[in-house]
Amino acid sequence: MGMPGSETALEELMCRVLGDLLQNGCVAKIADDLYCGGYTPTELLSNWRKVLTALDKCDLRLAAKKTIISPVSTTILGWIWSRGSICASPHRIAALSSCTPPKTVRDLRAFIGSYKMLSRVIEGSASILAPLESITAGNQSSSPVVWSESLTTSFYHAQEALSSNKSIVIPKPEDLLWIVTDGSVKMNGLAQRPENIKLLGSPAKLKHCPSRPPSNILLLISSSPSSKPVC
């Protein structure tokens, strides 16, 4: 809307119009877009009718140019959803793979944060980022980054690893999932998959703690849906 507080006003309006449908999972509001879906074409049609009925009762209309029905693929917040799978947007990958080494700790933290957003589709991202994270720990945001030869190599290695990003599968409620753990002293990784199809990766760097439980137990804790959502 272009006015202060307009986002909150729009959120309140949509909750009044589609509140029940949002709670039931028939429709989702992400940023300024509405997404209506279903596990089957029949369920999708039923949910779509409910959305149109709710909008019609409030005398609201959808713009034809902005309404896309049953697309083969769509991009949501930098992720491409296509035929039951999710992969990172090429634009997001290109932005990270083409940037120059950050000059300050603040910029390096921003790079690491953006990289971690893609950790689900990049194998071994925790170990790849470990050398870079060690530089940011305990340093002021405005401090300059001293790029040694080994640190520069680690940065470019992280950029090269972006090209190996993979698609992950969107599981259905009836799918039987396997939790495969792979723990070590400093890192852990996890993949949930039906049969041999990769669903997601959950790499993480473990903090040093003499009394911590075995890494496989930490993996099972981190795999809980309540502790970390699936992208």
TrEMBL record:
SUPFAM superfamilies: DNA/RNA polymerases. Gene3D superfamilies: 3.30.70.270. InterPro entries: DNA/RNA_pol_sf, Rev_trsase/Diguanyl_cyclase, Viral_Replic_Matur_Polypro. This is Uncharacterized protein. The lineage of its organism: Eukaryota, Metazoa, Cnidaria, Anthozoa, Octocorallia.
